[in-house]
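Weekly modeling sync, notes
Attendees: S.R. (lead), two postdocs, one rotation student

Agenda item 3: backlog of single-chain predictions. S.R. asked that every request posted to the team notebook include the full sequence so nobody has to chase files. The rotation student volunteered to paste the first one in as an example of the format we agreed on. Action items at the bottom.

Example entry:
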Amino acid sequence: MSSLLLLNGSPRGRRSNSMKMLTRVAQGWERGGGQLPEVLHLAQRSSFNRAVEAFAQADVVLLGMPLYTDAMPALVKLFIEALAPRVAVALGGGKNPTLAFLVQSGFPEALHSRPLERYLEKFARRLGSNYAGTIVRGGGESLQMMPDEANRKLWARLQTLGEQLAKDGCFGVAELKAVAGVERFSVLTAAAARLAFKLPVTQFYWNGQLKKNGAWSRRFAAPYTPDQG
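Predicted structure, as returned to the notebook:
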């Protein structure tokens, strides 16, 4: 029976959208015959240190994270950098665990996560690990607003992916595609979405998040705009 190390790379920790999805994958993993996984939240320092230690001991590692400005959160990058010694282990003929990933974002289109997906696949190869695939899902922030009952189909598909990981050692291509949803909007749909996002009702949630996190006064900040002075 294989062991699974489940790592939540979201700064939100237990209450994150990433954890909501990872929990369902873990349920499928157990349904497929895998051991009860060890669950660690990288946002907690003690868990971060334990994750680096436990990495080498697991048969399979599933690392989930949100997409932050088209990349991984800083704490996930720190974790990956902490695994640098494992490259030497692989080059010396040692073994690293099978790697699987989950990337979710607030963008409705899956294509925004594809560059990070390619990076993660390359990371697995560098460690000499078997690459089990990356679950990509857009529109993740809606999980905070919708009741679990409204996401029954998504939960079931994530459970199926977990079961596949336990039984086959990798995610099924067809199920990954189904979970990803819309890869890219058509021109017409994109135009309609741009108009919809300008409506006050669609801005209500995001405005609330800005105020909640003390960023409302900086909502028009453009730190990367070239200096025009």
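Discussion: group reviewed the output briefly. The chain has a mean pLDDT of 91.
Action items: rotation student to repeat for the remaining queue; S.R. to check formatting next week.
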